[in-house]
């Protein structure tokens, strides 16, 4: 059985036009998605601290509750970062 020749790398290299078109579409998509993501992140960062109250009221003695609290805290920090530019003109 003959050994097949390795595939040519020329066929795997995208053309400059294809890269430019992909880059343009990516910028357009990010331009549409970014404001929505900032809006959602901003309001999550505002509302999430209200979820801390029942956890803190019951105490953090249970490892599951403590892990939930830390997870919510990490999500809140990420939401603050992602939503910090919302509605700034």
Automatic annotation (TrEMBL):
<keyword id="KW-0812">Transmembrane</keyword>
<keyword id="KW-1133">Transmembrane helix</keyword>
<keyword id="KW-0472">Membrane</keyword>
<protein>
    <submittedName>
        <fullName>Uncharacterized protein</fullName>
    </submittedName>
</protein>
<dbReference type="Pfam" id="PF26071">
    <property type="entry name" value="DUF8028"/>
</dbReference>
<feature type="transmembrane region" description="Helical">
    <location>
        <begin position="32"/>
        <end position="53"/>
    </location>
</feature>
<feature type="transmembrane region" description="Helical">
    <location>
        <begin position="65"/>
        <end position="83"/>
    </location>
</feature>
<dbReference type="InterPro" id="IPR058341">
    <property type="entry name" value="DUF8028"/>
</dbReference>
